[in-house]
Every structure is written in structure tokens, then in C-alpha cells.
């Protein structure tokens, strides 16, 4: 629920600027919830003298959002608010009261609650009606949510044409996520003809609005030559911006691209720093690459101990490539003491994830009895799994081995 509300409310701000509280407040009509007269009076008494925007703030407090979550939603509130015990029934009523008084944030939040809360508050038809009313008033957040609903088919049949229409309206209202999704739709031809020029328009808009994923999309688009030819400068420019914005995958891709470009070899140290920043955020491919850099001394001092530490960390994160790499080191020896049994353990972890090279390795180890007991049926089974994924050596061993 919090995750969905986050996307609903991103960037929304209250449009109510009344300086005084309403003289008389009336109880709103709510089909989803019932309240006793005592509950109604208690809530009305609690907000006596409150300006409308303050009622919305109180509703958020009672709904149970933390200050950090409210900030992520793009809602501006004064710091140091009094913590409240969660009371979503009361919050529901307060959102209704503020929405009836014209507060756009409350109106929007109420639409999200109707769409995504658990019963009895949930009423998807009502939630969409709230969004449609706001969308007709050119509210970009509501237009974006309607795009999501039509895109996903969460509330009625999916309709990519309507989804694109709503995303376009929201993006023209400078909604960064709507522009990002439009860019991805046109980049990948999702329900429309693939159109890279159109994709670039929307991705640039989203990137200019500060969305790191749009920056990353632009970077990979230019690097993958999707415009017709590779543009390394533009690719690194956008990946660099996303990296600076803290996106761990972009930090990794930026560093990896620099390291794989011979003309940029002088920037290896800087590339390694970006890869380390990505690894520090828990991005496993970066952790694996950082281990390789310490093994080879590329951009960092040669340090086998650190290298094994990073490789093991990536393997422990479940990255099959890292598990296979650790296994190969134990199989060959060098930076670690040779130990085929440990190698077999790590190859098995990767093989169980469908890693073809590790499946091949398991087949050979069972075939030869290296690190595991010799087992020809098991060897054949693993080689077959690798061969099924197109592994040429596995195919050759299957064909040339005299199986019992």
C-alpha cells in the first residue's frame, strides 16, 4: 500500500491556501465505512479550528506514514509533528473531510486509498472516479495513475491506447514517471510501433526532471547504438548523471563502459571508484567486478585478499556469475588454495540457477570424480542441461563419451 501511494502522490502539492478554518464542518458521506455518532463528533471536535490543509496533514499522520515516507511522496510539511497511533479509520474520514473542502492532496490521497487499500476501504470504481475527476482538471498525478490502471488492467481491461493517452497528458504536465514510462514504451515498441525519436523526447524530459532511471535509459540507448550508431560521449554523459544521482546500476555501467573502452584506459581509477560506490550500495554485479579489479590490479592496487572478499560477497548475494568465478578459483588454485570440493559446492549453487558454464563444470566433475564422487548418470544429466542451453563443449562431451 505504501509503495503504491508513493507512486500516486509523487510530486503532488496541496492547492488549498485558505487562511482560516471553515466556520462549520459537516460530516462527509462515506459508503465504505460506518461511524458511530460519538466517533463522528470526536473527529469533528479534534479538528475544530484546523485549516483544511492541516486536516490533510493529520490524516496522513493517522494513516501511519513516517516523515521520511511523506517526504518521498513529495508532500511538504513542517518538521517535528506529534507522532500519532495508527488509526486508518479516522484517517479515512479526515481525508474525506479535507477533500470535500477542496484540498487536492486529500482528494488524490483518497483516490489512492480507494484503489489500493484493503477492504472495507477499497472501492476501485470509486477510486478511479476520484482520479478521473482530478485528471479532467489537468492534474498530472491523477492522469499518471489512470495511465497505470489502463496499462496494467488492474481495474478493468488493459488498454494500451488509453494508457498512452493518459501518460502523455501527465508527461506534458511534467510528471517524470509518466515521461519515463512513455519513453520506455516507444523505445521497446510496447503496444505501439517502436519509435526511438519519440522515446528520446520523453526520456530527455524525464531526465531533465531529475529521474535517474530516465538518465540510465538514455545512456544505454546511446551506448547500444539504438539511434543508428553508438554515441559513447552521450552514453557516458547520461550514465554519469544517473551515477551522480546515486543510481547503483548506472554507477556500475559507467565504470564498466570506461574500463572496456581502450581509449579511456587513463580513467581506470575513476571508473573503479564508481564501481566501488555501486558495490557499496549492494549491487552484486559491481561487487563481482570490483573483485576482478583487485585480482588484476586495474584501477586499484592488486590485492588478492580483497579480491576474494568481494567475489565471495557477490557470490553470497546469489549472483550466479560470482558463484561460478569463486568455484573456478578453487578449482584452479592461485589466490586461494586449490580445493575441488569447495569448487563443486559453488558450481552447484550457480548450476542450480541455470548457469550453463557451471552446469557443464558439474557434468565434468561428476564424469571425472573431481570434488564429488564419480557419477555417470549425474554427469550426463548436468551436461544435458548445459547442452540444452547451447553449450558447445557439453554437446561434444555428450556425443563423444561412451555412456553406460
Short description:
The protein is an all-alpha fold. The protein is 65% helix and 0% strand.
- Overall morphology: elongated
Average pLDDT figure? 91
Major sheet: none
Low-confidence stretches: 1-7, 9-18
Structural class: mainly alpha
Counting DSSP H or I runs of 4 or more residues, the number of helices is 22
Q: Report, as a whole number of angstroms, the end-to-end distance.
A: 58 Å
Helix content: 55-70%
Order of helices and strands: HHHHHHHHHHHHHHHHHHHHHH
Compute the number of strand runs: 0
Radius of gyration: 28 Å
Estimated share of beta-strand residues: under 5%
Describe this protein's structure.
This protein has a domain at 1-136. Helices cover 65% and strands 0% of the residues. The protein contains 22 helices and no strands. The longest helix has 13 residues, at 88-100. The radius of gyration is 28 Å and the shape is elongated.
Notable characteristics:
single chain; 404 residues; mainly alpha; 22 helices; 0% strand; elongated; disordered N terminus
SSE layout and pairings?
Blueprint: H1 2-9, H2 37-46, H3 52-63, H4 67-72, H5 88-100, H6 104-116, H7 124-135, H8 140-152, H9 160-172, H10 176-188, H11 196-208, H12 212-223, H13 232-244, H14 248-259, H15 268-280, H16 284-296, H17 304-316, H18 320-332, H19 340-351, H20 356-368, H21 376-388, H22 392-400
Amino acid at each position: 500500500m505504501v509503495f503504491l501511494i508513493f507512486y500516486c502522490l509523487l510530486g503532488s502539492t496541496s492547492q488549498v491556501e485558505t487562511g482560516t478554518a471553515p466556520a462549520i464542518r459537516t460530516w462527509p458521506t462515506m459508503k465504505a465505512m460506518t461511524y458511530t455518532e460519538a466517533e463522528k463528533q470526536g473527529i469533528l471536535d479534534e479538528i475544530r479550528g484546523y485549516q483544511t490543509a492541516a486536516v490533510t496533514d493529520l490524516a496522513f499522520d493517522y494513516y501511519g506514514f513516517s516523515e521520511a515516507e511523506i517526504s518521498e511522496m513529495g508532500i511538504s510539511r513542517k518538521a517535528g509533528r506529534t507522532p500519532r497511533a495508527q488509526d486508518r479509520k479516522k484517517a479515512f474520514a479526515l481525508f474525506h473531510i479535507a477533500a470535500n473542502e477542496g484540498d487536492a492532496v486529500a482528494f488524490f490521497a483518497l483516490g489512492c486509498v480507494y484503489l489500493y487499500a484493503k477492504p472495507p476501504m477499497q472501492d476501485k470504481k470509486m477510486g478511479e472516479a476520484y482520479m478521473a475527476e482530478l485528471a479532467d482538471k489537468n492534474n498530472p498525478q491523477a492522469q499518471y495513475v489512470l495511465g497505470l490502471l489502463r496499462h496494467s488492467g488492474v481495474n478493468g481491461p488493459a488498454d494500451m491506447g488509453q494508457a498512452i493517452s493518459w501518460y502523455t497528458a501527465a508527461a506534458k504536465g511534467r510528471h517524470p514517471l509518466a515521461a519515463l514510462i512513455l519513453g520506455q514504451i516507444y523505445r521497446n515498441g510496447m503496444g505501439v510501433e517502436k519509435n526511438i525519436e519519440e522515446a528520446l523526447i520523453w526520456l530527455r524530459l524525464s531526465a531533465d526532471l531529475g529521474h535517474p532511471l530516465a538518465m540510465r535509459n538514455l545512456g544505454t540507448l546511446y551506448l547500444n547504438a539504438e539511434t543508428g550508431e553508438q554515441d559513447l560521449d552521450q552514453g557516458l554523459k547520461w550514465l554519469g548523471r544517473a551515477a551522480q544521482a546515486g543510481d547503483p546500476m548506472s554507477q556500475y555501467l559507467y565504470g564498466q563502459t570506461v574500463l572496456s573502452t581502450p581509449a579511456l584506459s587513463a580513467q581506470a581509477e575513476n571508473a573503479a571508484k564508481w564501481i566501488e560506490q555501486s558495490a557499496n550500495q549492494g549491487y552484486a554485479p559491481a561487487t563481482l567486478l570490483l573483485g576482478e579489479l583487485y585480482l588484476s590490479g586495474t584501477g586499484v592496487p592488486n590485492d588478492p585478499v580483497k579480491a576474494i572478499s568481494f567475489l565471495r560477497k557477490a557470490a553470497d548475494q546469489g549472483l550466479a556469475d560470482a558463484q561460478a568465478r569463486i568455484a573456478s578459483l578453487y578449482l584452479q588454485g592461485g589466490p586461494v588454495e586449490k580445493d575441488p570440493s569447495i569448487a563443486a559446492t559453488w558450481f552447484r549453487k550457480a548450476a542450480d540457477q541455470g548457469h550453463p558454464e557451471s552446469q557443464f563444470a558439474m557434468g565434468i566433475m561428476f564424469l571425472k570424480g573431481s570434488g564429488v564422487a564419480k557419477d555417470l548418470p549425474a554427469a550426463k544429466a548436468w551436461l544435458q542441461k548445459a547442452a540444452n542451453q547451447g553449450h558447445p563443449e557439453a554437446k561434444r562431451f555428450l556425443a563423444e563419451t561412451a555412456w553406460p
